[in-house]
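Why does residue order matter? Because the sequence determines the fold. Keep that principle in mind as you read this record.
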Amino acid sequence: MIELVEALAPAKVNLSLRVAAADAGGKHPLRSLAQSIGWCDRLVVERADADELEVVGADLPTDEDNLVWRAIEALRAAGAPQEPVTVRLTKRLPVAAGVGGGSSDAAAALLAYAHLVGYGDPLDTVAAGIGSDVPFCLAGGTQWMEGHGERLTPVAQPFDDYWLVLAVPPFELATAAVYRMWDELDGPSGPELPMPATPPSLRQFAPLINDLYPAAVRCKPDVADWADDLTDRWGRPVMLSGSGPTLFGYFGDADEAREAVQVVPHQARAIAAAAPTGRGAHLDDR
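Structure:
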């Protein structure tokens, strides 16, 4: 009997994000080119006498407000065995940053708990009930996300012609507030990434745009200051991931990306250089 399972929860970057006006349910349909990258949280799920969640590296709730517990409870409600577990979540991904950390943690929790208790049914439906980004974070790779994130279309492409450097400014942005501001601004389009700055493998999807950028800047003008500063330091345009405030640029290889990390202002609350990956949340098979 398996006693312990480890899983990795990769960050999600919106390489492009187009937003439509809110529908009758108050949600905004979107079309986003989403990408998993090799920057991950780690979960350890172990059999225990009672349920318990420990979070290392971030001040997050450890009760049902945490998406990890919501994922496990949703899986139990779907028919998985009711085995008590302790979960240790080690956070490397910043919170409220637009890189899908909480959703990816939930996807990793689904995988780890299902493997631990021997639950073999598909996890897609359960994932969709937890949050709009969880299905993508479970599948991973390069995918078009449409609707409210529930419609995924895989994109076949090489993963070897660019690295990303991500810089997270020293403040948070609430997703709901950014979408409200986007509505108040009458649904603006974001700036286009110039073609010369677009990696060859992504040019077929150009122009890459994040429609939430103007709203993020209106909510927090420092976003634009950070974007301008990073553009100067890196010598290339930057983009916003999701509702922000994470900003990122494209680099040709690992060495170039690591050099770019060195010039990010030290005030950033997180900095990472990462390559695209074809995997979403997955069991740690080291």
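Helices lie at 67-77, 101-117, 124-130, 134-139, 175-184, 213-219, 222-234, 254-262.
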